[in-house]
Design a protein that fits this description.
Elements: E1 3-4, H1 9-26, E2 32-36, E3 39-43, H2 50-62, E4 66-67, H3 72-81, H4 85-97, H5 104-113, H6 117-129, H7 131-135, H8 145-153, H9 161-173, H10 176-187, H11 197-206, H12 208-211, H13 214-229, E5 244-249, E6 254-259, E7 264-270, H14 273-278, E8 280-286, E9 289-294, E10 299-303, E11 312-314, E12 322-327, E13 330-335, E14 343-347, E15 352-355, E16 363-364, E17 367-371, E18 374-382, E19 387-396, E20 401-404, E21 417-420, E22 424-428, E23 431-432, E24 437-438, E25 442-446, E26 452-455, E27 466-470, E28 473-477
Antiparallel strand pairs: 1-4, 2-3, 5-6, 6-7, 8-9, 9-10, 10-11, 12-13, 13-14, 14-15, 16-18, 17-18, 18-19, 19-20, 21-22, 22-25, 23-24, 25-26, 27-28
Length: about 475
């Protein structure tokens, strides 16, 4: 059954007569002649059929065109060869409107062959939205590697990871020698943790393409571990070291270290006079250095393992009364003592601070810590609400974005202290709202469940103090 293609026959009449006159004068085509009265229309006989030539001739004289589904590609070829641009455009629009799972493969072939960019994009989006339907067609097996890669890698493909993997396997086995390397490359890009555990086990136990690749086996195994236990970072086991807690003593103007094993204090290096005058506001340890930020924003470091090392002044942040944490070789700082939503990052490789994306909440007295590869800004006193908050914001260094934690603390607080272990985050003490009452309570956020629970309280209520973890024990100081 032939279907009517909508065309603009009025504009066609003027345009086609001009083209026909040029054909008549130049006689470009030479291996096949169509005679209409005394006129001769030269065409290439090896790419046209008599039926589609007749359709084009009918269009030339009437501006109307009809075509059966199985002849669309041939008609487009003849119209393209005869430079009937208006007919080509009309066919393209017709193909877009008639796109469905059955016509998809022929339409995509036409779009690619005749460089119809808009039609190509229409086919691409259709394939992403209707992946399952087109993937079950026999013609899916003939798609080229580039298009298969596009479908498998796109985040817009409307299919579960299992469905995509199953069809990738079928496509690969259709020509396994030529397509095996493509499969091994693409399977590593799947979000394996989104596949069911049963399907991943099925792949490992039954699929030769999987268990012939050690890289694929490794990825699937790690994904199964992640599914069982949450996001677990890889970490080697080291024999225990003599870990120490370091405090800054204003009276002796020295640092002192506390050995937790034998419970003894040892004096360390003196504190630089400039640091003493400006007062230390925050300190972090990163690699072999202790970094400190003073109340006026000046920034120093000391190679603490060297007994004769001197304090070095580094580039200052644009922060006042700043609180800092170390993460993945960088120092992150926020304005702890001021109502602020800004954060900066220090790169020791170039001695430079960089302004990062602002937080959503304007706070002071919030708790800052690094955990699970991210920076957590916990609770604090809200300038917008004029009271303590129990909300938690999380900064992702990979995407440079902040997000609100779906779960909040059980108790609002500010000037609290926070520290982290591999199991999760501890938040302790602080003040409660405008009364300034000091808290004794402790909350814990599990790295697996992402929920906050109340733990046994500290022995003493504390505010504006420090905490750390040594040998799986939490220490609170000051």
């Amino acid at each position: 059954m032939e279907e009517k293609i909508n065309t603009d026959s009025k504009e066609h009449a003027v345009e086609i007569l001009q083209q026909l006159n040029e054909y008549r004068k130049t006689g470009r085509h030479c291996d096949f002649m169509i005679k209409a009265g005394s006129e001769e229309l030269p065409v290439h006989k090896n790419i046209v059929s008599a039926i589609c030539v007749k359709k084009c001739v009918d269009f030339i004289y009437t501006g109307d065109a009809y075509v059966a589904k199985e002849k669309r590609e041939t008609l487009m070829g003849v119209a393209h060869m005869m430079q009937l641009q208006r007919l080509c455009d009309s066919i393209t629009i017709f193909l877009e409107d008639d796109l469905d799972p059955r016509s998809f493969f022929q339409t995509k072939k036409i779009a690619n062959r005749y460089n119809c960019k808009q039609l190509e994009e229409k086919c691409n989006q259709f394939a992403l939205q209707r992946f399952i339907e087109i993937a079950q067609s026999d013609e899916f097996m003939d798609l080229d590697e580039k298009f298969i890669s596009f479908l498998m890698e796109s985040k817009e493909t409307k299919a579960k990871e299992e469905g995509k993997c199953k069809m990738l396997l079928a496509w690969t086995k259709h020509d396994i020698d030529e397509r095996k390397e493509c499969f091994l490359s693409l399977v590593m890009k799947f979000q394996l943790t989104k596949m069911t555990l049963s399907y991943r086990r099925f792949l490992v136990e039954n699929e030769p393409l999987i268990f012939e690749s050690m890289q694929s086996i490794q990825s699937l195994t790690l994904s199964i571990l992640d599914s069982h236990h949450g996001d677990i970072s890889s970490k080697d086991f080291n024999l225990p070291k003599n870990k120490q807690l370091v405090v800054f003593d204003q009276t002796s103007q020295r640092m002192h270290s506390y050995a937790v094993d034998d419970k003894t204090w040892t004096p360390m290096q003196t504190i630089d006079q400039a640091i003493m005058q400006n007062s230390i506001y925050s300190a972090v340890v990163m690699e072999s250095y202790i970094y400190v930020i003073c109340t006026n924003g000046s920034f120093y470091r000391l190679e603490y393992a060297e007994s004769n090392a001197k304090w070095e002044q580094m580039a200052n942040p644009n922060l006042q009364n700043a609180c800092a944490v170390a993460l993945d070789g960088f120092v992150y700082g926020i304005e702890y003592g001021n109502y602020s939503n800004i954060m900066e990052r220090y790169d020791p490789s170039n001695n430079r601070w960089t302004r990062l994306t602002n937080k959503s909440l304007i706070l002071c007295g919030e708790s800052l810590l690094a955990a699970d590869g991210k920076v957590f800004c916990i609770a604090g006193y809200s300038k917008q609400q004029y009271r303590a908050t129990n909300q938690v914001e999380i900064y992702d260094p990979v995407t440079s974005t902040w997000s609100m934690d779906n779960r909040s603390l059980n108790e609002a607080r500010y000037y609290a202290s926070a520290t982290a272990t591999e199991e999760g985050i501890y938040v302790m003490g602080g003040c409660y709202n405008n009364s300034g009452s000091t808290l004794i309570t402790v909350e814990f956020r599990s790295s697996v469940t992402k929920t906050w629970i109340i733990l046994k309280p500290m022995k003493n209520a504390r505010t504006q103090f420090s905490s750390c973890v040594i040998d799986e024990k939490v220490y609170v100081i000051g």
